[in-house]
């Protein structure tokens, strides 16, 4: 499959399992993220790699966040299980810079591009990947425990692992519904 076919047929897969990818694979994924479009070369992102014992630490963090919000026991347990959806999570957060030509929203988009690039890299080496956000992306306790400043954003949690099952290819959306020419 060539690159264009790959991009036109890629899809997220939430069914992840297996061992943590080896360090060379993790580095290849991270390097892809570092090549994201980046106006003025600000590198307005940070990657936090979570694996092995880190998954347990993230589980405790999510559980604490749910408890602090007064969630019921079922939501607390669900939050505690979330990090175990995959053997590897790369948390992408912003690292905003003051710049006369690069507003904050452009830096957020660049961090999103880095996340997308890492997801594509993971898929290109045969892994499954799922980019998730949700309540934990915005929770101040989660940011604090991860060492992310409160004024920064968590762009997402990129879950990566072996595909537990192959998913049928989704039908492509018609260009006619989303494209206009000016």
Summarize the structure.
The chain is α+β, with helices and mostly antiparallel strands and 182 residues long. Helix content is 42%, strand content 17%. The protein has seven helices and five strands; from the N terminus they run H-E-H-E-H-H-E-H-E-H-H-E.
Overall mean pLDDT stands at 97
Low-confidence stretches: none
The CATH first-level class comes to Alpha Beta
Count of DSSP-assigned helices: 7
Query: H/E element string?
Result: HEHEHHEHEHHE
The end-to-end span amounts to: 33 Å
Identify the notable features of this structure and list them briefly:
NADH Oxidase; five-stranded antiparallel β-sheet; 182 residues; alpha+beta
Detail the topology: elements first, then pairings.
Blueprint: H1 3-9, E1 16-17, H2 23-34, E2 45-51, H3 53-68, H4 73-81, E3 88-94, H5 104-124, E4 128-132, H6 135-138, H7 140-146, E5 154-163
Antiparallel strand pairs: 1-5, 2-3, 3-5, 4-5
Explain what this protein looks like in three dimensions.
This protein is α+β, with helices and mostly antiparallel strands and 182 residues long. It has a single domain (13-165), classed as 3-Layer(aba) Sandwich (NADH Oxidase). It has helices spanning 3-9, 23-34, 53-68, 73-81, 104-124, 135-138, 140-146; strands at 16-17, 45-51, 88-94, 128-132, 154-163. The longest helix has 21 residues, at 104-124. It is globular and about 50 Å long.
């Amino acid at each position: 499959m060539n690159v264009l076919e790959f991009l036109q047929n890629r899809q997220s897969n939430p069914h992840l399992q297996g061992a943590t990818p080896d360090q060379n694979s993790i580095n290849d994924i991270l390097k892809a993220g570092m090549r994201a479009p980046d106006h003025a070369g600000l590198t307005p992102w940070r990657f936090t790699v979570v694996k092995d014992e880190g998954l347990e630490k993230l589980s405790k963090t999510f559980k604490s966040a749910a408890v602090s919000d007064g969630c019921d026991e079922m939501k607390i347990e669900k939050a505690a299980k979330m990090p175990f959806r995959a053997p590897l999570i790369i948390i992408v957060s912003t690292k905003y810079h003051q710049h006369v030509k690069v507003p904050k929203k452009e830096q957020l988009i660049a961090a999103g591009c880095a996340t997308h690039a890492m997801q594509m890299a993971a898929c290109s080496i045969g892994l499954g990947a799922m980019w998730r956000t949700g309540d934990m992306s915005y929770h101040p306790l989660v940011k604090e425990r991860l060492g992310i400043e409160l004024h920064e954003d968590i762009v997402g949690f990129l879950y990566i692992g072996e595909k537990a099952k192959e998913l049928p290819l989704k039908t492509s959306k018609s260009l006619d519904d989303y494209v206009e020419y000016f």
